[in-house]
């Protein structure tokens, strides 16, 4: 470009000819477009610039005498303005100075000075230096310093008619603006204007910025422009417009329809850039709308043809990458084919041959080839491909697994992970290699191998796989430890060959990675130990030894303390068949527990375990009860409130209730894993189908009993007072009033159950009446009993209740007592619902009732906004 | 779709950042920090892929500079390596034996080249020649004007 500047001196004509001469190849030859806007753009501008300078030399400052080139009025204006130029430090010089700073403080100082300068420049307004200032600011921004004050400058530069300013302005907009800022709204109009600019390079800037940071609003405004540009003849603009369309659809999915018709026609394009964009666009459209997906299934032969063309074409240097013809385009086509062929027989059939061809002929010695092959395998596994092809695909992955390149091995395991559910046996064949990858030095590869190994554990290989996994656990990087541990627990729970093996495995995990297991491990393991009663002696010995060896693994120490407390007598007896007998004295055990209590490594929870365990030992040992008494009393003044409370309570047990001590410190009963404490109410907020096959849990029966007693009596009463009620309305009043009377009667006999419950009718239709009873268990737990009775002359069948509660409330529906309600109010169906309301929100419940009566199916929904509580309804209360 | 592309030095200094999703500044800084610490901690000759949140991270070191990008789960990691390589080739062709300093001192050019290669997180042009040609033509459009302006009046 130096030549061009030198030419400025020579005058207007030679410049024109020179520019035409040197720019010709760049602008004319590669396009057969006869009107070349870029050329005019520069020529028009430059001739004016020269004119300005010539004028200035001649002393004539006015531009009016010169006729500007048609259509470039504003260019003329800005060129004239450029005469005033304030010199400032160049961008590169600033970078050099900043880089020379020796300390952070020095750098900060320089940048503060520069930013002040830049601000001043921005304030000065249009002086030709704005683009440099903004460029400097962008550098400062990259270093992590605040640069938001440049946002408006970006807006101004974008609106500038000069290409150099626009270019930096758009770059700045992409870096400094995000879609939430108001400034980004201001550039919408400039982008709109630039989209129909005569120069394709200006259009390109606008397109690029829109695709990078266009907000939903901007996308809505500009979508028609983009659709127009998609039909442009210029492929340079067309490829950018397709990607803009992709961005618009991602932002505003409902605009997809606008681009669907044009997208199909883009597939006939020869230019790879446009073709690639078209495939991306169609992928986006198909992923969003199943109808569009169906429509584009017709394009499969076309896509196959394009792909065939790429695979079989002779060498073309422009698109060749390591012997593969345009891998970028191939991968995108394969990905689109995967979406089109998924769950569709016809589409899959149409691409089978092509996939086989690509899978066998692609050279995978270089990354580009492997990338295509990898994508092919994914497509084969995801469509309805022939079985031979699937075998080929798994074999390719197997080959990848043996590759020297870690990247390829990683990819192979990622893909095997995807198919391990569907083609389990095929993946199982590569188990040895996968397990070997656990020993790889690379964490990424290890992680993949771990996931895959866990997926491959089965009842057949559990022992050998677990051996490998436990070795892995002891050597693996810390970030993988918790994943490994929970994976091992799951596998052990599913496939453990014996309880002893299961306990051993968990203990092994706890000794090697006790700090990285999840909290529920401890109760789970304790539950497992209690159920394995024949192993109590073995377990307690083993845990005692582990405790003596190491008290740093909190979860292990907790389980050990618990077991010593429970089974201390077995430990002291010292007769254990499975383990080498060691004589343990009472003092040894107490020493161990006291060490745990005193150790600074023990967490408060662990100390709690240890203290309780010590207390429990007081009934399991004979000689050292006084030592226990003193340990417990020491912690009566402990700073930890929880521990103190425990100690004080235990102390009281020693002093005041010594006669009850043995009974209180009995062995814990075997825990049931499915008791309410273990289930988590993850189904809250949705309607839950009661499971009739499940036997009714004991506690639900107990809770429902008093209620049903009352109702049985009510029914008896109903039967005598009002024989058969054809009209349901009076029946309900009769029931409620009589219930109150009856409650009074009952109150004298059996006050306790009635005091807590209040019954309210919530539904009354077609002879079916539904009453609810509320019983507050604790602050957060409420037991609701739903009682349904039938006053019609025929039995109600298929009776079913569904309940929904607000999201934060957990709901647990017990099984109903039946699904048939006998006629004439002769029986009823009760169902208990447990609500847990941890956030204490106002309780609401929606109940859907469905039933059949006299051949008609009814369905209704009842909303209960406030629950009856004994306190708020004194009128129904018995006394 | 690529979510971001970062270039940083062995010392963890950011040299180029391109975001294809609108993210608040603070989150961007957090990602940059996470990426540099994660990638720089990797030992040599390990594989080029990492997992971060629900993104696949693909990185590659060229001389003193790390090229690192974040991909969605459906994207092809091996192809991303090719994309990074292609970008390096483009820079190399433009600057002629590119080094870190070229990118520091002409960072805006590095962005301009990237904008002709990727757009909205997708590849927009698969031919090196076409990209080189359009960058050159845009540069010419800019330079012819700038050079004139920086020339002293005569």
UniProtKB/TrEMBL annotation, chain A:
It is a peripheral membrane protein. Residues 755-868 form the GAE domain. The keyword tRNA processing does not apply. InterPro entries: Adaptor_Complx_Large_Subunit (IPR050840), AP1_complex_gsu (IPR017107), ARM-like (IPR011989), ARM-type_fold (IPR016024), Clathrin/coatomer_adapt-like_N (IPR002553), Clathrin_a/b/g-adaptin_app_Ig (IPR008152), Clathrin_app_Ig-like_sf (IPR013041), GAE_dom (IPR008153). Residues 670-697 are annotated as: Disordered. Signal peptide: none annotated. SMART domains: Alpha_adaptinC2. Residues 685-697 have a biased composition (Basic and acidic residues). It comes from the Eukaryota. The keyword Transport applies. Keywords: Cytoplasmic vesicle, Golgi apparatus, Membrane, Protein transport, Transport. Transmembrane segments: none annotated. It is found in: Cytoplasmic vesicle membrane; Endomembrane system; Golgi apparatus. Belongs to the adaptor complexes large subunit family. This is AP-1 complex subunit gamma. It comes from Cirrhinus molitorella (mud carp).
From TrEMBL, chain B:
One of its GO terms (cellular component) is AP-1 adaptor complex. Gene3D superfamilies: 3.30.450.60. Keywords: Coated pit, Cytoplasmic vesicle, Golgi apparatus, Membrane, Protein transport, Transport. SUPFAM superfamilies: SNARE-like (SSF64356). It comes from the Eukaryota. It is a peripheral membrane protein. InterPro entries: AP1_sigma, AP_complex_ssu, AP_mu_sigma_su, Clathrin_sm-chain_CS, Longin-like_dom_sf. It holds the Pfam family Clat_adaptor_s. One of its GO terms (biological process) is intracellular protein transport. It is found in: Cytoplasmic vesicle membrane; Golgi apparatus; Membrane, Clathrin-coated pit. GO terms for molecular function: clathrin adaptor activity. Belongs to the adaptor complexes small subunit family. Adaptor protein complex 1 (AP-1) is a heterotetramer composed of two large adaptins (gamma-type subunit AP1G1 and beta-type subunit AP1B1), a medium adaptin (mu-type subunit AP1M1 or AP1M2) and a small adaptin (sigma-type subunit AP1S1 or AP1S2 or AP1S3). This is AP complex subunit sigma. The lineage of its organism: Eukaryota, Metazoa, Chordata, Craniata, Vertebrata.
């Amino acid at each position: 470009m130096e030549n061009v500047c030198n030419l400025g001196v020579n005058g207007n004509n030679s410049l024109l000819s020179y520019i035409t001469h040197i720019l010709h190849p760049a602008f004319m030859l590669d396009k057969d477009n006869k009107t070349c806007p870029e050329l005019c753009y520069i020529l028009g501008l430059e001739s004016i610039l020269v004119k300005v300078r010539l004028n200035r030399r001649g002393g004539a400052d006015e531009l009016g005498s010169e006729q500007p080139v048609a259509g470039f009025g504003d260019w003329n204006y800005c060129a004239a303005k450029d005469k005033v130029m304030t010199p400032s430090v160049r961008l590169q010089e600033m970078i050099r100075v900043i880089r020379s700073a020796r300390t952070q403080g020095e750098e900060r100082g320089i940048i503060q000075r520069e930013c002040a300068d830049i601000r001043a420049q921005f304030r000065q307004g249009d002086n030709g230096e704005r683009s440099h200032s903004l460029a400097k600011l962008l550098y400062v921004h990259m270093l992590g310093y605040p640069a938001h004050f440049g946002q408006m400058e970006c807006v101004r530069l974008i609106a500038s008619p000069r290409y150099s300013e626009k270019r930096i302005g758009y770059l700045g907009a992409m870096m400094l603006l995000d879609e939430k800022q108001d400034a980004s709204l201001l550039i919408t109009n400039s982008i709109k204007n630039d989209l129909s600019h005569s120069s394709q390079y200006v259009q390109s800037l606008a397109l690029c910025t829109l695709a990078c940071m266009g907000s939903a609003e901007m996308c809505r405004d500009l979508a028609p422009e983009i659709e127009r540009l998609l039909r442009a003849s210029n492929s340079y603009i067309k490829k950018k417009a397709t990607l803009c369309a992709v961005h618009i659809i991602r932002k505003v999915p409902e605009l997809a329809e606008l681009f669907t018709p044009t997208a199909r026609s883009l597939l006939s394009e020869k230019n790879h850039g446009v073709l690639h964009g078209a495939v991306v666009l169609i992928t986006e459209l198909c992923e969003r709308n199943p109808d569009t997906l169906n429509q584009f299934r017709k394009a499969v032969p076309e896509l196959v043809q394009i792909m065939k063309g790429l695979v079989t074409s002779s060498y073309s240097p422009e698109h060749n990458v390591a012997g593969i013809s345009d891998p970028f385009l191939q991968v995108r086509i394969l990905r689109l084919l995967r979406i089109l062929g998924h769950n569709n027989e016809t589409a899959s059939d149409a691409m089978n041959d092509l996939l086989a061809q690509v899978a066998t002929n692609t050279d995978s010695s270089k990354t580009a080839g492997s990338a295509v092959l990898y994508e092919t395998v994914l497509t084969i596994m995801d469509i309805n491909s022939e079985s031979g092809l699937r075998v080929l695909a798994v074999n390719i992955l197997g080959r990848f697994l043996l590759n020297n390149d870690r990247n390829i091995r990683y990819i192979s395991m990622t893909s095997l992970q995807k198919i391990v559910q569907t083609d389990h046996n095929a993946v199982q064949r590569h188990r040895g290699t996968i397990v070997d990858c656990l020993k790889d030095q690379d964490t990424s590869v290890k992680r993949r191998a771990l996931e895959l190994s866990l997926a491959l554990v089965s009842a057949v290989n559990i022992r050998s796989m677990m051996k490998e996994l436990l070795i892995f656990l002891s050597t693996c990087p810390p970030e993988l430890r918790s994943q490994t541990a929970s994976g091992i627990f799951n596998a052990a729970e599913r496939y453990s060959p014996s309880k002893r093996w299961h306990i051993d495995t968990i203990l092994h995990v706890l000794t090697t990675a006790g700090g990285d297991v999840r909290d529920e491990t401890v109760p789970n393991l304790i539950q497992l130990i209690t159920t394995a009663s024949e192993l109590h002696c073995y377990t307690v010995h083993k845990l005692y030894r582990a405790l003596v060896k190491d008290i740093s693994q909190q979860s292990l120490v907790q389980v050990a303390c618990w077991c010593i407390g429970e089974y201390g007598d077995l430990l002291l007896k010292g007769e254990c068949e499975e383990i080498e007998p060691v004589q343990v004295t009472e003092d040894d055990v107490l020493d161990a527990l006291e060490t745990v209590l005193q150790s600074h490594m023990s967490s408060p929870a662990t100390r709690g375990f240890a203290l309780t365990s010590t207390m429990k030992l007081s009934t399991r040992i004979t000689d050292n009860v006084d030592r226990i008494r003193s340990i417990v009393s020491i912690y009566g003044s402990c700073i930890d409130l929880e521990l103190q409370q425990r100690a004080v309570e235990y102390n009281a047990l020693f002093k005041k209730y010594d006669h009850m001590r043995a009974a209180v410190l009995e062995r814990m009963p075997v825990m049931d894993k499915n008791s309410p404490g273990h289930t988590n109410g993850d189904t809250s907020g949705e309607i839950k189908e009661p499971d009739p096959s499940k036997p009714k849990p004991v506690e639900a029966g107990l809770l429902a009993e008093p209620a049903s007693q009352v109702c049985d009596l009510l029914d008896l009463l109903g039967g005598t007072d009002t024989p058969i009620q054809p009209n349901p309305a009076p029946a309900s009043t009769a029931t409620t009033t009589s219930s109150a009377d009856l409650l009074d009667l009952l109150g004298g006999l059996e006050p306790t159950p009635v005091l807590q419950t209040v019954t309210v009718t919530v539904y009354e239709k077609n002879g079916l009446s539904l009453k609810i009873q509320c019983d507050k268990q604790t602050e957060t737990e409420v037991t609701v009993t739903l009682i349904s009775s039938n006053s019609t002359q025929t039995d109600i069948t298929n009776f079913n209740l569904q309940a929904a509660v607000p999201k934060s409330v957990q709901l647990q529906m017990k099984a109903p007592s039946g699904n048939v309600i006998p006629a004439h109010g002769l029986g009823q169906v009760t169902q208990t619902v447990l609500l847990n309301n941890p956030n204490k929100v106002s309780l609401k419940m929606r109940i859907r009732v469905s039933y059949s009566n006299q051949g008609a199916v009814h369905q209704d929904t009842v909303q209960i906004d406030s629950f009856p509580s004994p306190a708020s309804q004194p009128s129904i209360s018995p006394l | 779709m690529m979510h971001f592309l970062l270039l940083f030095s062995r010392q963890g200094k950011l040299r180029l950042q391109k975001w294809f999703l609108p993210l608040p500044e603070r989150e961007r800084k957090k990602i940059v920090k996470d990426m540099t610490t994660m990638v720089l901690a990797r030992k040599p000759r390990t594989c080029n892929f990492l997992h971060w949140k629900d993104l696949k991270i693909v990185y590659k070191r060229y001389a003193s500079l790390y090229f690192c990008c974040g991909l969605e789960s459906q994207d092809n990691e091996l192809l991303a390596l090719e994309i990074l390589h292609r970008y390096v080739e483009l820079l190399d062709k433009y600057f002629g034996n590119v080094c870190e300093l070229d990118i520091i001192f002409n960072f805006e050019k590095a962005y301009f080249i990237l904008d002709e290669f990727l757009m909205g997180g997708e590849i927009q042009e698969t031919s090196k020649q076409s990209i080189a040609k359009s960058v050159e033509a845009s540069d010419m459009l800019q330079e012819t004007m700038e050079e004139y302006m920086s020339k002293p009046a005569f």
